[in-house]
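Subject: for your reference before the review

Hello V.,

The reviewers asked for a structural picture of the protein, and I figured it would be easier to keep everything in one thread rather than splitting it across files. Below is the amino acid sequence we used in the manuscript, unchanged from the supplementary table.
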Amino acid sequence: MHFFKALGYSILCMFVVVGCIRESDKRIRQKLIVILNDDLKAITSDIAEENLLDSVYYDIVMYKDYKNYKFTKKAEVDFYFLKGVSAKIVRKYRYHSTLKKWERYFNEYRFYGDK
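And here is what came back from the structure prediction:
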Protein backbone atom coordinates (compact mmCIF):
# COMPACT_ATOMS: atom_id res chain seq x y z
CA MET A 1 0.00 0.00 0.00
CA HIS A 2 2.83 2.37 0.88
CA PHE A 3 4.43 1.62 -2.48
CA PHE A 4 1.35 2.83 -4.37
CA LYS A 5 1.06 5.90 -2.19
CA ALA A 6 4.73 6.77 -2.80
CA LEU A 7 4.31 6.09 -6.52
CA GLY A 8 1.27 8.38 -6.64
CA TYR A 9 3.14 11.20 -4.90
CA SER A 10 6.12 10.71 -7.20
CA ILE A 11 3.95 10.96 -10.30
CA LEU A 12 2.19 14.04 -8.92
CA CYS A 13 5.54 15.71 -8.17
CA MET A 14 6.77 14.85 -11.66
CA PHE A 15 3.74 16.59 -13.24
CA VAL A 16 4.25 19.65 -11.05
CA VAL A 17 7.93 19.89 -12.00
CA VAL A 18 7.23 19.38 -15.70
CA GLY A 19 4.49 22.01 -15.56
CA CYS A 20 6.85 24.53 -14.01
CA ILE A 21 9.61 24.10 -16.57
CA ARG A 22 9.78 27.07 -18.92
CA GLU A 23 9.21 26.54 -22.60
CA SER A 24 11.99 27.46 -24.97
CA ASP A 25 11.72 30.69 -26.92
CA LYS A 26 11.81 28.65 -30.13
CA ARG A 27 8.73 26.66 -29.11
CA ILE A 28 6.86 29.80 -28.00
CA ARG A 29 7.68 31.49 -31.30
CA GLN A 30 6.49 28.42 -33.25
CA LYS A 31 3.15 28.66 -31.43
CA LEU A 32 2.89 32.30 -32.50
CA ILE A 33 3.62 31.43 -36.15
CA VAL A 34 0.78 28.87 -36.14
CA ILE A 35 -1.63 31.50 -34.79
CA LEU A 36 -0.45 34.12 -37.29
CA ASN A 37 -0.99 31.76 -40.21
CA ASP A 38 -4.48 30.95 -38.93
CA ASP A 39 -5.25 34.66 -38.43
CA LEU A 40 -4.11 35.46 -41.98
CA LYS A 41 -6.39 32.73 -43.35
CA ALA A 42 -9.31 34.06 -41.28
CA ILE A 43 -8.69 37.65 -42.40
CA THR A 44 -8.62 36.74 -46.08
CA SER A 45 -11.31 34.06 -46.12
CA ASP A 46 -14.26 36.42 -46.71
CA ILE A 47 -12.56 38.74 -49.18
CA ALA A 48 -12.98 38.26 -52.92
CA GLU A 49 -9.85 36.95 -54.64
CA GLU A 50 -9.62 39.97 -56.96
CA ASN A 51 -9.33 42.28 -53.92
CA LEU A 52 -6.41 40.38 -52.37
CA LEU A 53 -2.73 41.01 -52.95
CA ASP A 54 -1.04 38.43 -55.15
CA SER A 55 0.84 37.32 -52.06
CA VAL A 56 -0.85 38.11 -48.74
CA TYR A 57 1.55 38.20 -45.82
CA TYR A 58 2.26 39.34 -42.28
CA ASP A 59 5.27 41.06 -40.81
CA ILE A 60 6.34 40.62 -37.19
CA VAL A 61 7.41 44.18 -36.38
CA MET A 62 8.11 43.59 -32.69
CA TYR A 63 8.86 40.47 -30.64
CA LYS A 64 10.32 40.86 -27.18
CA ASP A 65 10.44 39.56 -23.65
CA TYR A 66 7.89 41.13 -21.39
CA LYS A 67 8.54 41.33 -17.68
CA ASN A 68 5.21 40.56 -16.11
CA TYR A 69 4.16 37.84 -13.70
CA LYS A 70 1.47 36.66 -16.10
CA PHE A 71 2.85 37.38 -19.58
CA THR A 72 6.40 36.66 -20.72
CA LYS A 73 6.43 37.65 -24.41
CA LYS A 74 4.85 40.34 -26.56
CA ALA A 75 4.54 40.60 -30.32
CA GLU A 76 3.16 43.16 -32.74
CA VAL A 77 2.25 41.98 -36.22
CA ASP A 78 1.14 43.81 -39.37
CA PHE A 79 -1.09 41.92 -41.83
CA TYR A 80 -1.03 43.02 -45.48
CA PHE A 81 -3.71 41.64 -47.73
CA LEU A 82 -5.72 44.29 -49.65
CA LYS A 83 -4.97 45.17 -53.27
CA GLY A 84 -5.28 48.83 -54.24
CA VAL A 85 -5.72 50.07 -50.66
CA SER A 86 -2.83 51.07 -48.42
CA ALA A 87 -4.36 49.57 -45.30
CA LYS A 88 -3.15 46.89 -42.94
CA ILE A 89 -4.36 45.22 -39.78
CA VAL A 90 -2.17 45.68 -36.72
CA ARG A 91 -2.53 42.99 -34.07
CA LYS A 92 -0.77 42.69 -30.75
CA TYR A 93 -0.26 39.41 -28.93
CA ARG A 94 1.06 38.42 -25.52
CA TYR A 95 2.13 35.03 -24.26
CA HIS A 96 0.30 33.81 -21.16
CA SER A 97 3.03 31.86 -19.38
CA THR A 98 0.83 29.86 -17.01
CA LEU A 99 -1.64 28.82 -19.73
CA LYS A 100 1.22 28.40 -22.25
CA LYS A 101 -0.67 30.09 -25.06
CA TRP A 102 -0.78 33.33 -27.01
CA GLU A 103 -3.56 35.84 -26.53
CA ARG A 104 -4.53 38.58 -28.97
CA TYR A 105 -5.35 41.79 -27.14
CA PHE A 106 -5.30 44.46 -29.86
CA ASN A 107 -6.74 44.58 -33.39
CA GLU A 108 -6.91 47.72 -35.53
CA TYR A 109 -6.96 48.76 -39.19
CA ARG A 110 -4.35 51.39 -40.11
CA PHE A 111 -3.42 53.18 -43.28
CA TYR A 112 0.21 53.18 -44.40
CA GLY A 113 2.11 54.79 -47.22
CA ASP A 114 4.69 57.40 -48.08
CA LYS A 115 5.86 59.59 -45.24
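For the response letter, the relevant points are probably these. The longest strand covers residues 52-65. The chain has a mean pLDDT of 88.

Happy to draft the paragraph if you're swamped.

O.
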